[in-house]
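## retry 2 of 3
previous attempt timed out at serialization; input unchanged, resubmitting
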Amino acid sequence: MARRNSTVLNILLPVAVFLLSLSAYEYYTKGAVTWHRDPMATVRRLSLRAQSLLQEQTDAPFVVERSEPAARTLEAPKGVGLRQEFIDPGEPRFELVGRVSRVVDGDSIEVRVAGSEFPVRLFGIDSPEFNQPHGETALRALNRKLDGRTVAVSIEDIDNYGRLVGTVYHRGHNINLEMVAEGHAWWYERYARSEDELKDAERLAQEAGLGLWNDSQPVAPWEWRQAR
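## retry succeeded, writing output
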């Protein structure tokens, strides 16, 4: 009987440690523990994560194709640590997980993954340029939030400059949304028309006169760039 109990303990202990570690990881990156809601989906995510880590050990480019018909292929820069997660059947999400090595400006960062740096443009927002009013303030605000922090980036696209475009999360906080809500960035309507949260956050920040909205006539960054 003692031997049988010892065998059961040897099986259950690693499982318990694994589940505790998984719970801690989800809480740190997402702000909530969700694996128990759909264990099979969790198994799929872990399998895909293992595949991406294996891919990082090779020099072949990592290409992920969205599951819906006629969708284009999303090809990441060579060696990028992408993780594919399925929120709903046919709705894959691509994530980059790494540490912020540099905050470039109020809407751009660089993320270090497996010894490589990857530029990331925050999706759906546009902060003032560095040489326009509130530009330095926006940079400092994002720097306080993210410099040296571990983040998860839910990737929407890759832009013409080769930057990953996505929503940045730190400990469950949507940093893109926070930057708009605090008056450090505009809702970039041209590229994120359906993002109602960003739209509402901008309206509330404007009504409260927060950040850049403290100026009576702030100039949108896209207008500032076009004028120069």
